[in-house]
Amino acid sequence: MTDDADITLWALAAGRGDRDAAARFVGATQHSVRRFLAALISPAEADDLAQETYLRAMRSLPSFAARSSALTWLLVIARRVAVDHVRTASVRPRTVPMSDSFDIPDASRSGFDRQVVLERLIAALPADRREAFVATQVLGLSYAEAAEVCGCPVGTIRSRVARARADLVGSVNSQPVGRRREPGDSAG
């Protein structure tokens, strides 16, 4: 696992034109960036948004001054890309394929099904809570780093994460547990 100091050094070297450092910077951060964007917007759009994030970051690397870690700086850019995407998408009409199924699988089934349920529950959080929760609980950023990424005070991040946790616990508690009832099963 690469630490923030190495990533920041690679970003600084990449800003001076070191192509190898740029490749290492991207390689070390791409999973976190994609995961952050997938949680903020959608897994289907995460790759395109990550690409846009890196395009913006590469243009800005020469001015990166390492006042924060390079990963934090990059996630700020990713958040701006997500915000711009939402803004653009809100002026376009949306279409929803008729084949999409919105049934939530039984949480007691497989690990994969539980992961799908969790991702859907996180996706259902209000955007500000989802953003804070993903930054701190999924990506492992400190509250201070998440505050910088989200552009708000640390106390706001703490509050949003606490509310997101409460929302998730409430949602999990309302999910069906155990096996699914088959037609003809008694309720008792």
What do these coordinates show?
This protein is an all-alpha fold and 188 residues long. The chain folds into 2 domains: 1-91, RNA polymerase sigma factor, region 2, helix turn helix motif (Rna Polymerase Sigma Factor, Chain: A); 110-175, Arc Repressor Mutant, subunit A. Helix content is 67%, strand content 0%. It has helices at 4-15, 19-40, 43-60, 70-90, 111-123, 127-138, 143-150, 154-173. The chain starts with a helix and ends in a 15-residue tail after the last helix. The model is unreliable at 93-107 and 179-188 (pLDDT under 50). InterPro entries: RNA_pol_sigma-70-like, RNA_pol_sigma-70_dom, RNA_pol_sigma70_ECF_CS, RNA_pol_sigma70_r2, RNA_pol_sigma70_r4_t2, RNA_pol_sigma_r2, RNA_pol_sigma_r3/r4-like, WH-like_DNA-bd_sf. Residues 34-90 form the RNA polymerase sigma-70 region domain.
